[in-house]
Design goal:
CATH topology of chain B: Ubiquitin-like (UB roll)
Number of strands of chain B: 6
Strand order of the largest sheet of chain B: 2-1-5-3-4
CATH architecture of chain B: Roll
Radius of gyration of chain A: 14 Å
Order of helices and strands of chain B: EEHHEEEE
Shape of chain B: globular
Largest sheet of chain A: 6 strands, mixed
Helix content of chain B: 10-25%
Distance between the termini of chain B: 46 Å
Structural class of chain B: alpha+beta
Oligomer: heterodimer
Number of domains of chain A: 1
Number of helices of chain A: 3
CATH superfamily of chain A: Cytidine Deaminase, domain 2
Number of strands of chain A: 7
Largest sheet of chain B: 5 strands, mixed
Low-confidence stretches of chain B: none
Radius of gyration of chain B: 13 Å
Number of helices of chain B: 2
Order of helices and strands of chain A: HEEEHEHEEE
Structural class of chain A: alpha+beta
CATH class of chain A: Alpha Beta
Shape of chain A: globular
Helix content of chain A: 10-25%
Mean pLDDT of chain B: 91
Chain lengths: 130, 92
């Protein structure tokens, strides 16, 4: 899944990529890439409403919940921007940001506090199948 | 004659922790106004200062985006389902 997010981010650059991760008990098992329909996709992301809804419907059908929301920052580093914090409405989910450092992707994970809108970085562990 | 409004997780605390609210049918705008009249705390989340639906709020009728129908004038019939789905967005 990490590879899928990285591939989507590299492919979309210099535009921002975005998508959702579904799963159970906080463990993401499905990747749902969603088109970025922002008018200025190198500076913002807005998930395609139909794509977002399709992803939520697919999760519901599979008995999954929304575990994480990701998007990429192709040129500014993987820290949440003010716009990211103010636009965050699904605060039960992890917010993941893929940064591209000299074309090499890396990931940071955050939780956003519902009242203060402060981002707290989450340490995470990638488990890869043998 | 009633329709069901599906409430997104982030608004549930404002409507008594319900995932669905049933209100009398009408046009989408009227139905949302009934929701707001029953649960006034929802108003600021759905509408801007000018009383327009916020840009990040997507509304669907039986799975169809109201922007592809008649917007808030879309007429509902008994048993229709209205879903409020906040858009996911951000920026650098």
């Amino acid at each position: 899944m990490l590879d899928a997010m990285f591939a989507a981010s590299l492919q979309a650059a210099p535009a921002e990529a975005c998508g959702l991760l579904g799963g159970r008990d906080g463990v993401a098992t499905s990747h749902y890439p969603v088109p970025n329909v922002a008018p200025e996709p190198t500076e913002r992301f807005v998930m395609d409403p139909a794509g977002q809804r399709e992803a939520f419907t697919a999760m519901e059908r599979r008995g999954e919940e929304l575990v994480a929301i990701y998007h990429s920052h192709p040129s500014t580093g993987a820290s949440p921007s003010k716009a990211d914090l103010l636009s965050a409405h699904y605060l039960d989910a992890f917010y993941l940001i893929v940064g591209l450092r000299q074309g090499r992707p890396y990931l940071r994970a955050f939780r956003i506090h519902p009242r203060t809108r402060a981002a707290v970085e989450v340490r995470w562990l990638a488990v890869r199948p043998r | 004659m009633a329709v069901t409004i599906r409430i997104p997780a982030l608004l549930r605390a404002l409507v008594g922790d319900k995932s669905e609210v049933s209100v009398e049918s009408g046009a989408v705008g009227e139905v949302l106004a009934r929701l707001v009249s029953e649960y006034p705390d929802v108003k600021d989340r759905l509408y801007d200062e000018d009383g327009n639906l916020r840009r990040f709020v997507n509304v669907y009728v039986n799975g169809e985006d109201i922007r592809a129908l008649d917007g808030e004038a879309t007429q509902l019939k008994d048993g229709d389902e209205v879903a409020i789905v906040p858009a996911i967005a951000g920026g650098i």
